[in-house]
């Protein structure tokens, strides 16, 4: 049986492997996703300059108005995915590099990615 620390270390190792390949630029930023038990966060990062171009999370007032309950479910991830897509398209960014942050591409992470694609982003 894995302990919490073993799972966390495995996620951090996977995150490092992903970051070796996923590099963001101004025209094609890295869409980084982080999830906790209660919330999910997404931000588009230009790694060359070290700036965040856009961000969205279940903590945002815009997203909170649309949430039915807390921010730890698939419905909330879809809201955040569509919000980050709208904010990036408003800035003229259409393509991104997806960084799942060491989390499995399943559940809330997958729902966020699919909502961002449906919102007009290309991975």
Secondary structure layout plus pairing:
Blueprint: H1 4-21, E1 30-35, E2 40-46, E3 51-57, H2 61-66, H3 74-90, E4 97-99, H4 108-118
Parallel strand pairs: 1-4
Antiparallel strand pairs: 1-2, 2-3
Helix pairs in contact: 3-4
Structural write-up:
With 123 residues, this protein is an alpha+beta fold. The chain has a single domain (4-118), classed as Nucleotidyltransferase, domain 5, CATH 3.30.420. Helices cover 42% and strands 19% of the residues. The chain has helices spanning 4-21, 61-66, 74-90, 108-118, and strands at 30-35, 40-46, 51-57, 97-99. β1 and β2 (40-46) form a beta hairpin. α3 packs parallel to α4 (108-118). The longest helix has 18 residues, at 4-21. It starts with a helix and ends in a 5-residue tail after the last helix.
Notable traits:
123 residues; alpha+beta; Nucleotidyltransferase, domain 5; globular
Concise structural overview:
The chain has helices at residues 4-21, 61-66, 74-90, 108-118, and strands at residues 30-35, 40-46, 51-57, 97-99.
Q: Quick one: how many beta strands? A: 4
Order of neighbouring strands in the sheet with most strands: 3-2-1-4
> Largest sheet, described in full?
4 strands, mixed
Global mean pLDDT: 90
């Amino acid at each position: 049986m894995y302990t919490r620390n073993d799972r966390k270390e495995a996620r951090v190792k996977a995150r490092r492997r992903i970051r070796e390949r996923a590099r963001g630029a101004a025209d094609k930023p890295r869409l980084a996703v982080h999830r906790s038990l209660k919330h999910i966060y997404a931000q588009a990062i230009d790694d060359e300059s070290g700036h965040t171009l856009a961000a969205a999370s279940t903590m945002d007032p815009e997203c909170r108005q649309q949430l039915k309950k807390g921010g730890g479910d698939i419905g909330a991830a879809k809201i955040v995915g569509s919000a980050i897509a709208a904010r990036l398209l408003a800035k003229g960014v259409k393509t991104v590099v997806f960084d799942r942050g060491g989390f499995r591409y399943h559940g809330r992470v997958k729902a966020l990615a699919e909502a961002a694609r449906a919102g007009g982003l290309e991975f």
